[in-house]
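Support request, please re-run this one:
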Amino acid sequence: MAEKTAVLTDKAPKPLAGIYSQAIKANGFVFVSGAVPMDAESMKIVDGNIQIHTHQCIKNLSAILEASGSDLSKVVKVNVFLSNMDDFAAMNEVYSQYWGDVKPCRTCVAVKTLPLNVDVEIECTATY
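Re-run finished. Output below.
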């Protein structure tokens, strides 16, 4: 069985203790838990709209990926969860600025409620 290693950085919001890891490295991949638009220092949701929140989610993912020995350009799959599909276009305006030249595969779905009642949560899988 492949070994798995938890990733933890103080440059992204702390995970809930005993519930989940920020990321897991296994078999050449890093699986990053969903990131909400929370500031790592204050542990509070940043003020702003879906675009500011999307930037913050990706900033958090980036910090975790870097702690894993990876980065946004190595992401192969992204899952985006929106609380309102009306935010799809505005989220994409920000989202498309990231990930390098070859964009990862992606799923984007609307869900009824996200943690802390945020409007977006993003998770990803990358190589390292």
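The chain has a mean pLDDT of 97. Strands lie at 4-7, 23-26, 29-35, 75-82, 105-110, 120-127.
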